[in-house]
């Protein structure tokens, strides 16, 4: 998309997009919702299979673990109580706050979009054209998210924003929330990505 005669706000957003795009490689390690692990060898070997087991016992509140499932990045974010409280305040700003569209499993049809409210499990691929959104913490000065931002994800390609449940905000190019993959808990600290208990 080409920007012509940009307003001041558009210019600020353009600068931010360029900056975040350039820094995307290092931003992953520096975000306030840190990614603590990605693509461990054993997980990579299973990534092209139908399901991936993930140990979440070492995940601290506020941290995100990334694993590969069927060639896609899957984020597991352990949300803090503050992060969860922010989700309930966003309903009017979201395209599909109840996750009622067809790609969402039944256990994602709630404010937190998950089986266990503490953990978000979502595919880290923007539903617009497939870019990888970045984590943007509460209090960020990113002009695309606004002063009342409660934390979430920003796609540097065309500016879509998602909350900490992967729900897309209104008036953004992405049409739907981030995908919640089929998954289930094998125990309190072990997830299976790729299978669930749905019929
Ligand atoms: S690919 Fe994310 S906004 Fe376009």
Give the SSE map:
Blueprint: H1 8-22, H2 24-30, E1 35-38, H3 41-47, E2 52-55, E3 64-69, E4 72-78, H4 81-87, E5 119-123, E6 134-136, E7 152-154, E8 161-163, E9 183-187, E10 190-193
Parallel strand pairs: 1-3
Antiparallel strand pairs: 2-10, 3-4, 4-5, 6-7, 7-8, 9-10
The protein binds FE2/S2 (inorganic) cluster (FES).
Give me some keywords for this one:
single chain, 199 residues, alpha+beta, Rieske Iron-sulfur Protein, 4-stranded mixed sheet, 3-stranded antiparallel sheet, 18% helix, disordered N terminus, binds FE2/S2 (inorganic) cluster
Looking at the structure, the CATH topology is: Rieske Iron-sulfur Protein
Structural class: alpha+beta
Give the class-level CATH name: Mainly Beta
Order of helical and strand elements: HHEHEEEHEEEEEE
Averaged pLDDT: 82
Number of helices: 4
Please state how the strands of the largest beta sheet are arranged side by side.
1-3-4-5
What number of structural domains do the residues give?
1
> What CATH architecture do you see?
3-layer Sandwich
